[in-house]
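hiii so um. not sure if this is the right channel but i have a protein structure encoded as tokens and i wanna go backwards to a sequence. like what aa goes where. can anyone help
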């Protein structure tokens, strides 16, 4: 059957591809250490699950979730309290994950060939979602030598004729977080242009050491009218399977997204929204989130130190999210585990097939010198996987 031109130009998610190959090997009895996962390894906190169960028992099983308006109000309160962003109910939309929020936003803003500036390394779905909306991704390179951060100059140089700038701090895949000063400098550059900013803040709560998170829209009073803030429950509350995310921004954009969603999926899952409401309002949430954050911090520091102790690997210590993104290019040109390694895809292939370690090639994120390792796994597993990797590279 002939598929649409639209879908034919979209690459399948490389992250999902490596995870499914690793799962396939595991099902065949092979002991694979999986650093491919993009989700917390903790269970959803029990009090959140209880709220969803209660909603089910109370008959919250129809269209228009009973807790929907309360969840929107809780998100508005969270934005005011924690992020310095004022948003009314008509400026917030709840979607099936942050991924879906971003998808809807690109769909309602992009006309054919509109340009979207995407700093690289980038989360794999940004360019594909832009293409699906008919737009044109324009990459702003920010490799390891730049500390994985774009500069205000890059924004100014690329802004002409571009419509949207995507920012993601803390970042997937690099684990890097912009400082408030760096983000303010980018904001000042943005304000000299006509750019709309998509600020993907999904890893907001996962910051380490003395790293301070700030919301982009709060950095200048002129920013809320041109910024859409994306966030969700997946990473903060370990709720990836609940598929709940949201966006906050100018009324006309949110209203267009609601219009699109009304024909696409209608509302999100009723009882999942009840769980999300509990996550945003329960006094138990702060400690649940903090204990996961502390654990990620410990693992991230450990993984980066171990990676840097392996010859030919250079890794920036992550200040956020749960990924290390080391530069492994010093090993290119070698034969590893029988694979002649020319780039990150070969490196990941060698690691998986010969050391049974699953990691994601940086090529998928727009930087072929690096690979991504998730530290959303125990320290014992991190050690086991890195022992294997060190042995393969020795
Ligand atoms: C940078 C970034 N944005 C958005 C998402 C979307 O997450 P979800 O759709 O589970 O809310 C992810 C998940 O991997 C991500 O890494």
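sure thing!! here u go:
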């Amino acid at each position: 059957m002939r598929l649409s031109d639209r879908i034919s130009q979209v690459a399948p998610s490389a992250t999902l591809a490596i995870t499914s190959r690793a799962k396939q090997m595991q099902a065949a009895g092979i002991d694979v250490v999986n650093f491919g996962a993009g989700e917390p390894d903790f269970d959803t906190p029990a009090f959140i699950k209880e709220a969803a169960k209660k909603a089910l028992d109370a008959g919250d099983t129809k269209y228009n979730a009973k807790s929907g308006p309360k969840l929107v109000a809780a998100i508005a309160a969270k934005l005011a309290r924690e992020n310095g962003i004022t948003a009314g109910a008509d400026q917030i939309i709840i979607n099936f994950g942050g991924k879906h929020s971003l998808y809807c936003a690109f769909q309602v803003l992009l006309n054919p060939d509109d340009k979207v500036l995407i700093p690289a390394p980038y989360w794999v779905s940004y360019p594909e979602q832009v293409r699906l909306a008919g737009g044109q991704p324009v990459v702003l390179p920010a490799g390891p030598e730049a500390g994985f951060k774009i500069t205000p100059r890059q924004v100014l140089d690329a802004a002409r004729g571009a419509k949207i700038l995507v920012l993601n701090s803390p970042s997937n895949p690099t684990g890097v977080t912009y400082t408030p000063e760096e983000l303010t400098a980018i904001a000042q550059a943005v304000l000299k242009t006509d750019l709309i900013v998509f600020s993907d803040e999904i890893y907001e709560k996962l910051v380490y050491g003395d790293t301070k998170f700030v919301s982009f829209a709060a950095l200048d009073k002129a920013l809320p009218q041109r910024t859409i803030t994306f966030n969700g429950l997946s990473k903060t509350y370990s709720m990836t399977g609940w598929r709940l995310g949201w966006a906050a921004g100018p009324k006309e954009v949110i209203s267009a997204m609601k219009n699109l969603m009304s024909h696409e999926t209608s509302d999100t899952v009723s009882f999942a929204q009840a769980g999300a409401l509990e996550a945003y309002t329960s006094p138990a949430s702060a400690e649940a989130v903090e204990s996961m954050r502390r654990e990620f911090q410990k693992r991230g520091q450990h993984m980066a130190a171990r990676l840097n102790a392996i010859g030919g690997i250079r890794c920036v210590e992550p200040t956020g999210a749960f990924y290390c993104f080391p530069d492994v290019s010093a090993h290119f040109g070698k034969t590893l585990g029988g694979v002649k390694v020319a780039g990150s895809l070969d490196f990941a292939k060698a690691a998986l097939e010969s050391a049974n370690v699953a990691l994601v090639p940086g090529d998928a994120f727009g930087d072929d010198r690096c690979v991504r390792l998730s530290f959303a796994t125990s320290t014992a597993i991190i050690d086991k996987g890195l022992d294997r990797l060190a042995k393969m590279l020795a």
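oh and Residues 38, 97-99, 123, 168, 172, 200, 202, 232, 234, 240, 245 surround pyridoxal-5'-phosphate (CB under 6 Å).
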